[in-house]
Amino acid sequence: MIQFIALLLLAVVFGAPPLRGADLDQAKKEGEVVLYTTMVVSDFQVFRKALVKKYPFLKVNHVRLGASTLVSRAIAEFRAGKHLTDVYGVAPDSLNYMREQGILAPYASPEAKYIHKGFIDPKGFWSGITTDVLVTGVNTAQLNVKRAPHSYADYLKPEFKGKMAFHMGTNNPLIGMSEMQGEEKALAYMRSFAKQDLIQHNGYTKISQLLAAGEFPIVAFMQVTKLEKIREATGRWTGSRLILLSRRYPPWRFQSMRRTPTRRDC
C-alpha cells in the first residue's frame, strides 16, 4: 500500500481526480494507512483533513518522528521483517539512504508529471510534496536585526563566531550551496563556516524554540516555517533578509502550511 498512498497524498492535497480501480479497491479493503513522517502534527492536519474528506473510509495513523529516529526505526523494522508503515515522509537524503538499504519500492505515479524538476526521484522512489526556505533567524532581544548576518559571507565574519546555532542533522545547506556555487566552492565555504564555533543542535523545531528562549542570538540556515510559528507565539524574534538556497525556488506559497508546493500546477 506504500505506492497507493504516496500517490494519494499528492492527489488529495492538490485537487487531482480521485483514485479509481484496483488502487481504490485495495485501499477500501485495508481501510487504514500508517505514515511515519517528520512533519509536525499541526502541519499534518492539513493532509489528514483532505484525506478524510475525499476518502472517508480510510483511517489515517500518523507517527511523527525526527529524521534520524525515523530512518533507524525503518531500517530496524525492515531487517526484522516487519511491515508496520505504508509511507515515509522525510527529506530526500534520508529517503535515498533508505532506498539504498532496499526499504523503498519505486512507483511511476501519474501525478509525477506535475512535479517540478529536482523535486522527484527520476527512478520513482520518492516525490516531494512541499519544500521550505532556509533563512537567518535573529532574537531581537539580544541582537539588532540591522547587525545580523544578511548574506552567506556575513556568516563567516569574526563578530558572529560562537554566536550562531546550526542544525547539525541535515545536509540541506551543503546541497543548496553546491547547486549555486559548485561542489568545490561549496565544500570550501562549509569548511570555513564550521570554524565559526557553531552552537550545534538537532531539529529545526527545537532550535527555533531555543532561539526564542534566548539560548543564542542567531540561527543560520534555518527553516522559515519554524521561525514564523515561534514569532507568532512569542513575538521575540524576527528574520533577517531571506537567504535562498536555490535559484529554482518557486514564487508561490502553500498558505495553509506556509510551505511551498512542489507541483507546477499550483
Structural features, described:
This protein is α/β, with parallel strands linked by helices and 266 residues long. Helix 1 packs across helix 3 (41-54) and helix 9 (204-212) packs parallel to helix 10 (224-234). It has ten helices and ten strands. Strand 1, helix 3 and strand 2 form a beta-alpha-beta unit. The chain has a five-stranded mixed beta sheet, with helices on one face. Strands 2-1-3 form a three-stranded parallel beta sheet. The radius of gyration is 20 Å and the shape is globular.
Summarize the structure.
The chain is of the alpha/beta class. The protein is built from 10 helices and 10 strands.
Order of helices and strands: HHEHEHEHEEHEHHEHEHEE
The CATH architecture of the largest domain comes to: 3-Layer(aba) Sandwich
* CATH fold label of the largest domain: D-Maltodextrin-Binding Protein, domain 2
User: Major β-sheet, in short?
Assistant: 5 strands, mixed
Strand content: 15-25%
Query: What general form does the structure show?
Result: globular
Count of discrete alpha- or pi-helical segments spanning 4 or more residues: 10
Helical proportion, percent range: 25-40%
Specify the structural class.
Answer: alpha/beta
